[in-house]
Amino acid sequence: MTKYLFYPGCSMQKNARSYLDSMMAIRPELDITFEEVDDWNCCGATEYWSVHQVKAHALIGRNLALAEQQANGSNTLVAGCSACYLNLAKTANYLEEDLQLRAKIDDALAVGGLHFTPGSLDIRHLLDIVFNDVGLEKIRSKVVRPLTGLRVAPYYGCMIVRPDRENRYGNPEYPTALDKLLEALGATVIDFPQKTHCCGGHMTQISPEVAYELLHRLISGADRYNADLIVTLCPMCQLNLDAYQGDMNTFMDTDYHMPCLYFTQMMGLAFGHDPKELGIGKEFVDAGPALAKIGVELPEAEERPKPKPRRKQKQEGLPMPRMGDGNE
Amino acid sequence: MSAMLNEEKNGAPISYMAEVSRATPGNCRLEMCIQCGTCGGSCPSADDMDHTPRQLFAMIRADMRDAVLASNTPWHCVSCYYCTVRCPQEIHITDIMYTLKNMAIAAGQYKKTIDADFSESFVGYVDEYGRSFELGLATRMYLRHSPLSILKTATMGFGMLTRDRLDFSPQRIKNLDQLQSILKRAGEIEEAVR
Amino acid sequence: MSEQFEPVIIGFTCNWCSYRAADMAGTARIKYPPNIRLVRLMCSGRLDPTFVLKALSEGADGVLITGCHPGECHYLEQNYKALRRYRLLLKTIAQMGIEPERVKLVWASAAEGVQLARAITTFVEEIRALGPLRWPLRLAEMDIKETAAVEEVVA
Amino acid sequence: MSNKQNQPQDEKERIGVYVCHCGSNIAGVVDVEDVAVWAKEELGDQGVVVSRDYKFMCSSLGQEMIENDIKEQGLNRVVVAACSPHLHEATFRKACERAGLNPYLSELVSIREQVSWVHTDKEKATEKAKAMVAGGVERVIENEPLEPLRVPIHPATLVVGGGIAGIQAALEIADAGYQVYMVEREPSIGGHMAQFDKTFPTLDCAACILTPKMVSVGEHPNIELLTWSEVERVEGYVGNFSVTVRKRPRYVDTDLCTGCGICWEKCPKKVIDEDFEQGLGYRTAVYTPFPQAVPKYPVIDTESCIFFANGKCKACEKLCPTGAINFDQEEEILLLEVGNIIIATGFDTFDARRIPEYGYGRLANVFTSVEFERMCNAAGPTNGEVVLRDGVTKPEAVGIVHCVGSRDRNYNNYCSVICCMSSLKFAHLVKERTGAEVYNFYIDMRTAYKDYDEFYQRVMEEGVLFVRGRVAEITDATRNPGEEGKLVVQVEDTLAGRQRRIPVDMAILSVGLQPPSDTKEVAQRFGISCSASGWITEKHPKLDPVATMTEGIFIAGAIQGPKDIPTSVAQGAAAAARVLGRINKGEMYLEPIRATVDPEKCSGCRICNNLCPFGAIIFHEDLMVTEINHALCQGCGTCVAACPAGAISGTGFSNEQVLSQIEGLLAYSFPKDFELVEMVPA
User: Where are the beta strands (DSSP E) in D417-540?
Assistant: First the structure.
């Protein structure tokens, strides 16, 4: 039973509650526990940087200091939200490399009777824990309801892989951790070209038409590869893809029904958990039809147009380059 | 960074580039730009920007301070960090965009726009409660900036509420005084630099 | 004469890299303070620690050791040996009551005239900040103390 | 004050000091007259009897001045304060020699490079010049009369690498009538040039100009060609290196083989040719990389050969008309004696898989520049047809991406020099063979060489389109019907200041050049060094680009840094000329800077024993003393510095010389400290 410090972040409290619930639900199978950082505050998302950068670092610094205090045994701080993860990691990183900044933040935190020692915490994203610490072998062994026949688009978004200073995902352009995880769950994983493209972030709030364009790229991309649903690991991405898909359709004059679930929910389903327990059903875009393919019954699931046959890629002709480790 | 220090030594006035460079935490390497356009090519919202990031850096070098602060480019940055990881000169482009937003706000530019207002309101809630408050934020945005789409928002907000994905009232952290005192001090330090 | 303290510094250079870097700095007319006097060795590996102690005891305020970048040694790997000796040397002089900052090791390839000039300039400033070493005087004083002590014992 | 034991007996020093004005180069900043006068007055006790300043010491008049003084005033030591020893040390040593004084009893003090050119304050500069002269005087007193080391030059030469640079070098030397050994790792010589189709800017066919040279290497009586072989070990020093070469078994008896080709026509095992054909084509298990290979003999690749896998087949053996196939062949170890070595091991290309946003390996129709070279080559996998990966479709739009892996701190932080021109060449070839729309995506267009920019102009006239911007990504993620089924090149057109998405059928990545992956080990093996970017370091970047810091080891071609064919050929010839000079002379002189152990003083502690990378230090178990082999010693002095007993002395840089120089440099620097010392009652 491995224990991790956990930073939920504002989103997972409410709009991404199902992410939190599903994560909690699968703890036993993964054989891990989480200890929430006591009295944590907002990480400032992308907004706080925009207004005051030093204050933003102080804001995050408080969370780091609190976590450090609480770190007995485990000094690994886990975040499920990509923005939270990036912000925590970014500040920890800059405090290590920029001594002037460190002095400023030490000063500020001291006023609150706090101190953070750069390097004292290992800040990681939930996917990193699941993929690298728990490992695929263990996950495979827990699968009771394989996601066989389900075509999923693995979607990483931005802030988990960029900037990846510790180089945890090998390569910020074409990560494969989530792909491999979903394969381990039995799903058919499409080679999703937009897997690390942007969901529009806060643009859905301040200039929707920009966001709709970005969302359209993702959803149409997933649809072109006949994905049944998009699997994500970030509350902001899920919110944009799910809650704004309707507005996007209206704006773009399209008619997509591309459900978007969290990877923890997919794991929960594969582990045989009840959809409700995993917070499934809170989506704007009904995941029912997709999940029906793996025999998961949701209330009021409607029919969905049969996916078109996927166009084949010619295999004869000149041989393709050997990939070797190039893609690792 | 080093370029900046030299100028300080000779007591020459700090160039605008050095100013931006200094205001950005870490070594942002702004002075290393070779104008290759990898940033502008990678940017998902480049189409909506007045200037590509590359152009903005050229303008910074040319000391076109006002034009830079007036540009909407930083405000269309979605913080996807594509430019930062792809830049062949390892320039911290996303961070520089944040710096430019800080400067624009400090200079009173962009006060009226939704972009800056959204950020500032968000920060306002965080300063006030220690947590973000989506419902409050969303409502405020639409009331202030697009009253016409208030209905659509309402339905969306309603959807969120029915799905139990939205709080009616903001969450408050316990030790709010501590956070606020820390932020107050940090704010003073930040001012002192300017 | 300016009021500010003008340190005198001995610089040891490698015939294949840093000495050529110094030549290059000259050819390119890159300026650096005149406080340093260079000694040419065939390799930083030739640097006998006593050379450094000699320099300090003859009144130098600082010593700058320069050699090829790791992996670029003309004699394959001797600069690593210089590096090891340098680390030991720092300990030794610290024990002798000399600030370790007064002895510094920098790498400069034959092409790095600019870098060498910059390193020299920085080092001169660092030593200026540390102030005069006056080791000859310190040594002399030590002598008196010792003789005094001896005399006491004798008495 | 200074230790006199080493100086010639029965004479006290009579030192001459000569301060050079170098026109105004020195005199402009240093008060040379003052320095000269001061040296006479202050350094009289050290034995300075003559001290003069003169406009140009290196002029014949200046040199005669020194010679006369040596003769008339009986000088036995000379100090010249002028420029860097790397420029005129030899000049003044010769002058001394002419006057009958041992050349090593002179010192050259660099008050130009180290004083007048780098300082501005006249007073301080003059003070420093004086200190340096004092240092020189103190040092010269400790100098010993020496004889230069004389080494004979073995007339044979080793050329490592059979690319165009190595070929050129080998032919120059062999044609001059001297023995050359050429070692090549691949089954054939020819290098990268053999893979190319056309060569810029003249567009003549690479094979047409290369193969004649390859053939003459193959049949040259003075060239012993060792392909499928690698250099294992190098011992010795300039003039007589002994080199160990490992010759891998071909499993083909080259005395019997006629190169008829039946074996590779009949071989049942086909594999993808990852090397010569860059994975685009196939070869058999027994093969020659290409038809014009030199030598013509094939090799059997044990990796893919059926017989080596399961002991069956032997089709080649059965069918060979001359019975040349020999599966029992074993590797040979050869020992070569050579006087000089030329390293021409060339380059590798950047692995495009490292930039996933360009999709190489994932997107079928993204090709590398070398793949494209093979595709264009009439003897290549598509017989010169420019087609998509499906092997049939001609592209209607092609994007050529410059600077792939070059000028990028994430990969190689230097310009690969050739890519702009080869990309222009590709543009021309695509136009010529498909008439497709061609886009060149570049950061800066670098066409700086004879007829290169003209070629750029020509390609523009041919209607090729140019977009100034580094490509951000190549993707199959299309956004509109216009992009359907195409590759989209996303880039900022930096001249238009707008992001553009350009649909193409084929993308060509102009991958940069980088040092072969094992260059560090190769450098170690030959006792030379690599720069930070991994290329081998030349002796002088401008004045000695084909020599290395190690005597007798020369470099030519891309291994010194990215370069094109003309420059590689020029360097091959240049390196050959340097070697031929040595060979003709038959012997050369080396600085007598060597370490010597005084067996009396040596305590046998063996501290020095593992310090020498050249294996010059031998320990005599019987006598329990260490000895240094002067033939192997390179004179770095590391052992001298290490010896706790002071038993090792280094000629030219002895402890006495260095310590005295330090004394001199400091003695006149600061009266303040002397006062301080004097304040202390003795």
Answer: 437-442, 465-468, 473-475, 487-493, 498-504, 506-511, 513-514
Q: What is the pTM of this model?
A: 0.84
Same domain, B27 and B74: yes
Q: Which of B85, B171, B190 sits opposite A54 (nearest CB)?
A: B190
- The yes-or-no verdict on residue D7 having pLDDT over 80 is no
pLDDT at D119 over 90: yes
**D391: which chain A residues are within 8 Å (Cβ-Cβ)?**
316-318
Between β-strands A260-262 and D332-338, what pairing exists: parallel, antiparallel or unpaired? unpaired
pLDDT score of A105 more than 80 = yes
Token representation of residue D276:
């010569």
Put simply, the chain C residues between 58 and 117 with a CB less than 8 A from any chain D CB are 58-60, 68-69, 71-78, 81-82, 85, 109-111, 117
Residue with tokens 């482009």: B93
* The pLDDT of residue D678 is above 80: no
Largest Cα separation within chain C, whole Å, is 65
The CATH number of domain D591-651, selected from 2.40.50.140, 3.30.413.10, 3.30.300.20, 3.30.70.20 = 3.30.70.20
DSSP H helices, D364-479, are 369-376, 419-434, 452-461
- Residue A171 pLDDT: 80
Give a yes or no: residue C45 inside a domain.
Answer: yes
DSSP D595-654: EEE-TTT-----TTTT--TT--EEEETTTTEEEE-TTT-----HHHHH-TT--EEETTS-
Between C16, C60, C69, which is nearest D666 by CB? C60
pLDDT-derived band of residue D236, with 50, 70 and 90 as boundaries?
A: confident
Chain B contacts to D (CB-CB under 8 A): 34-43, 46-47, 51-52, 54-55, 82, 86, 88-90
Burial A255-275 (b: 16+ CB within 10 A, else e): ebbbbbbbbbbbbbbbbebeb
Let me know whether A165 and A274 are in one domain. Answer: yes
Alpha carbons A152 and A228: distance in angstroms, whole number = 6
A247 chain-B contacts, CB cut-off 8 A: 152, 156
Q: Are residues A88 and A175 in the same domain?
A: no
- pLDDT range class, residue C77, cuts 50, 70, 90: confident
Do B22 and B97 have their domain in common?
yes
Residues 6+ away with beta carbon under 8 Å from D608: D617, D626, D639, D642, D643, D648
The domain covering D158-240+335-347+518-590 belongs, at the CATH homologous superfamily level, to FAD/NAD(P)-binding domain (3.50.50.60)
Residues of D in contact with B39 (CB under 8 A): 492
Q: Is residue C34 part of a domain?
A: yes
B52 to D492: CB separation less than 8 angstroms, yes or no: yes
Chain B residues in contact with D404 by the CB 8 A cut-off are: none
Flag whether residue C37 sits within 8 Å of chain D, measured between CB atoms: yes
Instruction: State chain B's mean pLDDT as an integer.
Output: 86
Range of the domain at B174: 114-193
Report pLDDT for D535: 94
pLDDT exceeding 70 applies to what percent of chain B? Answer: 87
State residue A197's pLDDT score. 94
Type and span of the H or E element at D158: strand D157-160
Is B41 within 8 Å of D471 when comparing Cβ atoms? Answer: yes
Q: Which chains have at least 3 CB atom pairs separated by less than 8 Å from chain A?
A: B, D
Q: Would you kindly state where each structural domain of chain D is located, as residue ranges?
A: 15-146+658-667, 158-240+335-347+518-590, 249-330, 348-514, 591-651
For residues A84-109, average pLDDT: 94
In the CATH hierarchy, which fold is given to the domain comprising D249-330?
Answer: Alpha-Beta Plaits (3.30.70)
Nearest CA in chain C to D524: C76
pLDDT of B114 reads 82
Supply the mean pLDDT for chain D.
93
Mean pLDDT of D502-519: 97
Backbone angles phi, psi at A6, to 5 degrees: -130, 130
